[in-house]
Structures are given as structure tokens and as C-alpha cells.
From TrEMBL, chain A:
Keyword Ion transport: no
Official protein name in the record: Amino acid/amide ABC transporter membrane protein 1 (HAAT family) /amino acid/amide ABC transporter membrane protein 2 (HAAT family)
Superkingdom of this protein's organism: Bacteria
Pfam families assigned to the protein according to its UniProt record, in alphabetical order: BPD_transp_2
Keywords for this protein: Amino-acid transport, Cell membrane, Membrane, Transmembrane, Transmembrane helix, Transport
Organism: Humitalea rosea
Transmembrane portions of the chain: 12-35, 42-62, 68-91, 103-123, 143-167, 188-213, 233-256, 263-284, 314-333, 345-371, 391-411, 418-439, 462-482, 512-532, 552-574, 586-612
Automatic annotation (TrEMBL), chain B:
Domain ABC transporter: 4-245
Species assigned in the record: Humitalea rosea
GO CC entries: plasma membrane
Keyword vocabulary terms for this entry: ATP-binding, Nucleotide-binding, Transport
InterPro entries in the cross-refs: AAA+_ATPase, ABC_AA/LPS_Transport, ABC_transporter-like_ATP-bd, ABC_transporter-like_CS, BCA_ABC_TP_C, P-loop_NTPase
CDD domains named among the record's database cross-references: ABC_Mj1267_LivG_branched
SMART domains: AAA
Alphabetical list of SUPFAM superfamilies matching this protein: P-loop containing nucleoside triphosphate hydrolases (SSF52540)
Name used for this protein in its record: Amino acid/amide ABC transporter ATP-binding protein 1 (HAAT family)
């Protein structure tokens, strides 16, 4: 009983930290409609800057008390300034771009910040000093409880109260609330939007920085803080309802306590618990606990999608030439190059499968790796348990992945926009932790080894040709479906659900089936990858693989069919080259992504198409 | 023959009784106008007819069959076409494709995964577009069309299932006066030729009095007048709530 109380208290302390990050994220989203992937990076920067300010004694002249607390507050101010710079230099240029592009740009920032932090503070974990006056512990029901944790428990409600006052008692706050409700109207009333957006972004960044800085006495500062934080913050914000501060607070309490008790009660599924809760909340309340259905969120987000046009003759000819070169490579290139090409082919089909549901389907999946992994594991498990031949594994893969897509998709396709994206992410995390924690079946972290092709396909050139047939064939089949009546019905439901239903289209069923088709093709890609590598691991279903697919589709361009193919080649090639050529590949990749988003907001293929049409 | 019969239809939003027990009927080939001042309940009434809004009480009968509360996509299958007050088309698809999708949906051919849509129902789609005067623009995306043209595309789409009932919510809003008359003249002709019952709401009294066979007037959720244009025009209650308030011919 006693330790339950202590556990509850430490849950409250984590809830406070979560709320600090999530509040900034939700305020930024409310006003600017930008889903800021870099929010975790700002949190990490806050922690690093605080560490530097405190350990170098920048505020030491004012005594030991201010040496610490001055450092913490200073870090929040510095982070706010960094946020303002990011807003002015980057986000301001892309407010009119589609939601997902903004997300992509902020992801570029994540990569850049990671390398900058590595360069400035090194790879080792940094330990901060304890907080003056809060070093000790108190006895609660006979158990020691750190004073600093008690302090943190108080910080959450204090910040909530402070934000409430700010939003209800100041002109700035009233404008922020007005812009959250209807930003077109606020602009029409003559409010300087640029200033308001910069202010809001700085405020949100400052809150993230404060959250990070306050972790200094609690845990070490390291380079993994950004992604672990952003995932949790997304969960909190989505569960609470995008744009709702009170919702974020409630959700932070829920998630904080859940994590604290989850370890005691259900240690087997701790990794998945948070995402399970998010999935349940989104299924029951599609817009989060206190969120409201987005109104006109997409209406003003840029010009209408361009028409889907058949590829011009020249592009078809180019495609044929490339295909011929790819086939010819099997006889010319050495084994290593062929396995790199095989990987690119797998990436190509994976990207095409994601594009199918994202472009024509209008549903951004942030967890597409789940179906890639499902295909890979289906094949691997069949090999391991039934010693099945390769063709059986490759045949099973699309069915297994498609079935998983049917189950997860039934929930996901009901939602749209960011909520749908987050639900797909939640399901992917559930799939990932199943593979990770169900050690008896999946081998856990060690994966499944010995998933080799049949003897006839063992030679690299043969397997490469097989991959070429499956991946290019799959991508062409998907393309065919987009042009077929089913694809038209899918695009119709994306463009105007109201009209689609009025002419007899079951938009739910259409999107659901499309989701399953997309999953099945991702599964094919996964099985080819499994046999190419000879093994499967939980990372096949991980977030970073999902993000890779998203990057490929967005880099190439959502609005053209050739976009994802180009994106897959560009990203895989870029990663390969950068990782081999430089230590700072993240910085370069991040900067490349940012530049591409700013200068080619329609993606590479979109830009190429625009140039082509101008010429014609 | 009665195409549409509405019996004691009612709907309230919160505490506001938007539609309070409205009954009327519509014969095949008849063009019926539903008019009334802003907030009279026209749109709510309209949206209950094709299942977009579920009525609190009352019945909607399509050629004798009860379709109350049926989902829009099922109502479509029974032969109801509709256009929207704010046009709803597929912006990233061409005008021709918009009509093709509707035609294929009618023929239950939208499940096809292999044969490209381009070659399916294209001639039929173009015939429909020709009827509404949109053939020249068949290859343009709907996303870039002028508003009046979108209204015409919507009409072509609504005609794709050879409907017996056509519901048109402000079909001529956003069009030039000459275009309005032309579009409604076309609609009236289609109704007569095909025996289609047409129900439309409209703010433009020129259009209403020129093309409606009969008019029903709604005010604060209730039917206050019904009859031929001349009778309605002369009705003192209608003049009081509607025409007498300054909303004269051609106004909005």
C-alpha cells in the first residue's frame, strides 16, 4: 500500500514533466496548425543548455541558488529564442504547405539538432548537479521520497495556472485563443499574424526548454532525449485533444500514472501500454479527451491537388530505359552493389505502398513499418517453425500483412489528418512491442535468423532479379489500381466524402480496403527484405522505418505517382552516400530535407513535373 | 404518379425547431420550388430527404417506399440525385472523371482493380456533359472551375443515375442571371422528358416563378403556403413573411 502511494507520487512528477513539453506542443499546434516534430529536440536543447549554464557557473556571481535556478530559467529563454529563430527562418515560409510537409520540415530540424548537439556536447551522457535547497528527501508513509520530485509535482499545475492567466488576462493570450478558434478571422481583423506566430512558437519552445532543463537533477542528459520525448508528448497531446491545454494536462496525468503503475502490474506490456491507451482513447473519442473535430482545417491548406495525369511519353521511355539498365545490372554489377540495389528496390515498393494510402487515399500512415514487418515476420516464422520453402513465405507475407491491415485499418480509416496518423503510429508501436517482448515466438531483440532463400535463388544476381520482378511489378500493380475504378473511388472519397456518399460510394469501405491493399504490398516488400538479409528483427517494425517511408513519399512528392519511387531512390541513395562519406550525415540529410521542403514544396517529382509543363 | 411524399417531417437542433411537421408531395415530371426566408428550415428539410440528416419524426416516401433515415449512398441507389448548396465535387479529378465515377457507381463498377477507368463510361459521361454544356471543359480539373460551371458539373453528376427524383439545393447560386435561366430551363426540360421529379430551393425569385410548376413556402419550420406560382405570389401570408420584407425579384 505504502509503495503504491510513492509510486503514484512519482507518476505525478513524470506527469508534470510530460505536461511541460506537451503544453508547448499543443499551443503551437492550436495556433499555427504545425505539428512540431522538433519539439523533443527543443526539450533536449533545454537540458543541454541548462547543463552548460549551470556547470560553467554563468550565474555563479549571484550565489549558488541563482547559479542553478538562473541556469534553468536561462535555458528556457535560450530555447525560446532558438524556437523564434526556427519559426522566422523556416516555418514562416511553409505555413501554406500541406500539414505533412511542415512535419517533414520539422523532422529535418530534428536531424540537424541531433548533429549540432553531438558536435557541441559530445556523445557521452552528461550528469547535472542537484538543485539547491531541494537535495534531500522527505519521508512519506515511512518511505523516502525525493524533495525535487515533490517540487516537480507542483510545477505542472503552476504552469497550467500561469498559462491560463496568460491566455485569459493578457491581450497576447486572447489573440492566441482567438487564433486557435479561427485564424482566418484573426488575420482578417488586422492582427499581425507573423508576430503572433513567432510569439507562440517561442512560448512553446520555451516551455519545452524549461521541461528539459528541469530534468537536469533527475536524469542524465543524452542524445536520445529528443525522440523518446516527442513520442510521449505526441501521445499526451493527441489523447488530450490537439490544441487543448486542459486536455493535455489530464492526458499527462493519465499517461504519467499509467506508466508508473504499469511497471508494477503489467511489466510484460509496459512498452505497449501507453500506445494501447492512446488507441483506445482515439477509438472511443476520435478527437481526444477534450478535443473538438477540426473545422476547415484542410480548406485553406494550399491550392487543390493537381490532376493525376498519365505519364508523358518521355517519362515512359525513361522508365523503360531505367528498367532495362536494372535488368542488365544483374549480369554486370558485383554482389555488393546488387545487394544495395536490392535494398533500393525494397524501399521502392515500400514507399509505393505507403503512397497508395497516403496520396490517393488521403490518409497519412505513420506506422507503415508494421505491415512491412508483418510480411517479414510471417515469412520468417514460417521458415523457422515449418521449414517452409521461400515461395511459401513470400506467398504468405502479403496475406499476413493484409490481414493485419484489415484489423488495424478498421480503426484507423475512421479518423483523418493528424489523429489518423497518430493512431497508425500507436498500432505500429503495439506491433513492434509484440515482436520485441514476445520472446518465445519472435526471439525478441535477437530476431529470427536463417531466413535464407531457396538454393536456386541463393546467388545474388538471381535473388536480385527476383526482387526486381516482385518490387517493380508490385509498384506497377499499385499504379494500375490507382487508375482503375477502385482507385478513382478512393480519390473521390478523399476529395469530397459528401459527394462520394451522395453518389453511392461507401467511403469507409473503400478506404478500408485500400488500407489493406497498401498493407499487403508493404508485406511483400518486407518478405523480400527478410530473405535478402537472411534475418528479421523488431526494428523492421520500428518508428524509424515508418519515418523512412514517409520521408521517401514526401521527398518524392505525394501528388504524383512517380514521386515515391524517386523519393525511395533519393533517400536510400542519399543515406548510403552520406553515411559512408561523412560523420555528420544527419546534419546534411536534415539540411537537405529542409531545403527541399522550402524550395520544392511539391516534392522532387512535383518540381520536375512543374518544370516539364513549363517547358511544354 | 407521386415520386416523393413527405409526411409530418420534424427536426430540432438543440432547442430550435428547424422543421416542424412538414408534409408535401411531388409528382413525376413536376418541378417544385421550396422557398422561404433565411433560417426557415429549407436546408434541414432538404438534408433529411436524402438521408444526410436523420429526422426526429415523420416519414419520407420515395415512390411509396419508406426511405426515412436511410444513408445517402443507399438513397442514391434508389434513384435520387442531388446537388449541394456549396458545391461538392472531386477537385483533383477532371470533369469527365467526376461524371464517370458517378456512372460507374450506378453500374456497381467501382470495385474494378485492373481495367483503367479512362476507357469506361467515357462516352456516356461526355453525353451528360454535353447536355449541361460542359463538354468543352471535360478535361479540366474541377478544382479550378468557376463556381457556375461547378454547378453544372454537379447537375451532370446528379443525372448519372437516371434519377426519378432530383434534389437541388440552390442550383443557380453563383451564376450570371442569363446562365441561371438557361440552367433551370434545361432542368425543367429534363424533368418533363424523363419524368423526373425536381425539388429545388432558390433565392432568386425570377428563377422560381419562371420555372417552378408549384411552390411551397416554409417559414420558421412550418409550411405556410402551397400552390401554383400565381397563387403563392398573391398569398398575403407569403407576402408578409417573405416578399414583403424587401426580398424582391432578383435579390438574395
Amino acid at each position: 500500500m505504502d509503495d503504491l502511494v510513492v509510486q503514484a507520487l512519482s507518476g505525478l512528477a513524470s506527469a508534470s514533466s510530460l505536461f511541460l513539453v506537451a503544453s508547448g506542443l499543443t499551443v503551437i499546434f492550436g495556433v499555427t496548425r504545425v505539428v512540431n516534430f522538433a519539439h523533443g529536440s527543443l526539450y533536449m536543447l533545454g537540458a543541454y543548455v541548462a547543463w552548460s549554464l549551470v556547470t560553467h557557473g554563468v550565474f555563479a556571481f549571484a550565489g549558488p541558488f541563482w547559479q542553478f535556478w538562473g541556469g534553468i530559467l536561462g535555458a528556457a529563454v535560450v530555447t525560446a529564442a532558438i524556437g523564434a529563430v526556427i519559426e522566422v527562418l523556416l516555418l514562416r515560409r511553409i505555413y501554406r504547405a500541406p500539414e505533412l510537409f511542415q512535419l517533414l520540415a520539422t523532422f529535418g530540424v530534428v536531424l540537424v539538432v541531433q548533429d549540432v548537439a553531438l558536435w557541441a556536447w559530445g556523445a557521452q551522457d552528461l550528469l547535472g548537479p542537484r538543485a539547491p535547497m531541494l537535495r534531500g528527501a522527505v519521508r512519506i508513509l515511512g518511505l523516502r521520497f525525493p524533495l525535487y520530485e515533490l517540487f516537480l509535482i507542483a510545477v505542472g499545475p503552476l504552469v497550467l495556472a500561469g498559462l491560463w492567466l496568460l491566455f485569459h488576462r493578457t491581450r497576447f493570450g486572447v489573440l492566441v485563443r482567438a487564433a486557435t478558434a479561427d485564424r482566418e478571422m484573426v488575420a482578417a481583423l488586422g492582427v499581425n499574424q507573423a508576430l503572433l506566430f513567432t510569439g507562440v512558437f517561442a512560448l512553446g519552445a520555451g516551455l519545452a526548454g524549461l521541461g528539459g532543463a528541469l530534468q537536469l537533477p533527475r536524469e542524465s542528459v543524452n542524445l536520445h532525449m529528443d525522440l523518446s520525448t516527442i513520442t510521449e508528448a505526441f501521445v499526451v497531446v493527441v489523447v488530450g485533444g490537439l490544441g487543448s491545454l486542459t486536455g493535455a494536462f489530464l492526458a499527462a496525468l493519465l499517461i504519467g500514472e499509467l506508466s508508473a503503475f504499469g511497471i508494477l502490474i503489467l511489466p510484460k506490456i509496459t512498452l505497449v501500454l501507453v500506445f494501447l491507451v492512446m488507441a483506445v482513447v482515439l477509438v472511443v473519442r476520435p478527437y481526444g479527451l477534450l478535443g473538438r473535430a477540426p473545422q476547415g482545417l484542410h480548406a485553406s491548406s494550399g491550392p487543390p491537388d493537381p490532376l493525376l495525369l498519365p505519364a508523358p511519353r518521355a517519362l515512359r521511355q525513361l522508365g523503360a530505359v531505367v528498367l532495362a539498365l536494372l535488368v542488365g545490372s544483374a549480369w554486370v554489377l558485383p554482389d555488393y552493389e546488387l545487394s544495395v540495389l536490392t535494398e533500393i528496390l525494397v524501399a521502392l515498393l515500400f514507399a509505393a505502398s505507403l503512397h497508395f494510402i497516403m496520396g490517393p487515399g488521403g490518409l497519412a500512415s505513420f506506422g507503415h513499418a508494421a505491415y512491412f514487418g508483418a510480411g517479414a515476420y510471417a515469412a520468417a516464422l514460417l521458415v523457422q517453425h515449418a521449414a517452409a520453402p521461400m515461395w511459401a513465405g513470400m506467398l504468405l507475407a502479403p496475406f499476413a500483412a493484409g490481414l493485419l491491415g484489415l484489423v488495424f485499418g478498421w480503426f484507423c480509416v475512421r479518423l483523418s489528418g493528424v489523429y489518423a496518423a497518430m493512431l497508425t503510429l500507436a498500432f505500429a508501436q503495439i506491433a513492434w512491442s509484440t515482436a520485441f517482448q514476445w520472446v518465445e515466438v519472435t526471439g525478441g531483440d535477437n530476431g529470427i535468423l536463417g531466413v535464407w532463400p531457396d538454393a536456386w535463388a541463393q546467388p545474388k544476381p538471381v535473388f536480385y532479379l527476383l526482387a526486381l520482378v516482385l518490387c517493380v511489378g508490385g509498384a506497377m500493380l499499385l499504379r494500375r489500381i490507382v487508375w482503375a475504378p477502385f482507385g478513382a473511388a478512393l480519390r473521390a472519397g478523399r476529395d469530397s466524402p459528401l459527394r462520394a456518399e451522395a453518389i453511392g460510394i461507401d467511403t469507409f469501405r473503400t478506404r478500408w480496403m485500400a488500407f489493406a491493399i497498401s498493407a499487403a504490398f508493404a508485406g511483400v516488400a518486407g518478405s523480400v527484405f527478410a530473405y535478402a538479409k537472411g534475418s528479421v528483427f523488431p526494428t523492421y517494425l520500428g518508428i524509424s522505418r515508418s519515418v523512412d517511408a514517409l520521408l521517401m513519399v514526401l521527398l518524392g512528392g505525394v501528388q504524383t505517382l512517380s514521386g515515391p519511387l524517386l523519393g525511395a531512390v533519393a533517400l536510400t541513395g542519399l543515406q548510403e552516400q552520406l553515411m559512408r562519406g561523412t560523420d555528420h550525415w544527419r546534419l546534411l540529410l536534415g539540411a537537405t530535407i529542409i531545403l527541399l521542403v522550402v524550395f520544392f514544396p511539391q516534392g522532387l517529382a512535383g518540381a520536375a513535373r512543374a518544370a516539364w509543363e513549363k517547358r511544354a | 404518379m407521386t415520386v416523393l411524399a413527405v409526411e409530418h417531417l420534424a427536426k430540432s437542433w438543440g432547442g430550435v425547431q428547424a422543421v416542424a411537421g412538414v408534409s408535401f408531395s411531388l409528382a413525376a415530371g413536376e418541378v417544385l420550388a421550396l422557398i422561404g426566408p433565411n433560417g426557415a428550415g429549407k436546408s434541414t428539410c432538404f438534408n433529411m430527404l436524402n438521408g444526410q440528416v436523420r429526422p426526429d419524426s415523420g416519414r419520407v416516401l420515395l415512390a411509396g417506399r419508406d426511405i426515412t433515415g436511410m444513408a445517402p449512398r443507399h438513397v442514391f441507389r434508389l434513384g435520387v440525385g442531388r446537388t449541394f448548396q456549396i458545391t461538392a465535387t472531386f477537385g483533383a479529378m477532371s470533369v469527365r472523371e467526376n461524371v464517370q465515377v458517378a456512372l460507374l457507381s450506378q453500374a456497381r463498377g467501382l470495385g474494378g482493380l485492373w481495367r483503367p477507368m479512362a476507357g469506361q463510361k467515357a462516352a456516356e459521361a461526355e453525353a451528360l456533359l454535353d447536355r449541361v454544356g460542359m463538354l468543352e471543359q471535360a478535361a479540366r480539373p474541377c478544382g479550378v472551375l468557376a463556381y457556375g460551371d461547378l454547378k453544372r458539373v454537379e447537375l451532370a453528376v446528379a443525372l448519372a443515375n437516371t434519377p426519378r427524383l432530383l434534389l437541388m439545393d440552390e442550383p443557380t447560386a453563383g451564376m450570371a442571371p442569363a446562365e441561371r435561366i438557361a440552367l433551370m430551363a434545361l432542368t425543367a426540360r429534363l424533368a418533363k422528358e424523363g419524368g423526373i421529379g425536381v425539388l429545388f430551393t432558390e433565392h432568386d425569385m425570377d428563377v422560381v416563378f419562371a420555372h417552378a410548376d408549384r411552390i411551397i413556402v416554409l417559414d420558421r419550420g412550418q409550411l405556410i403556403a402551397e400552390g401554383a406560382p400565381q397563387e403563392v405570389r398573391a398569398d398575403p401570408r407569403v407576402r408578409e413573411v417573405y416578399l414583403g420584407t424587401g426580398a424582391t425579384a432578383g435579390g438574395h
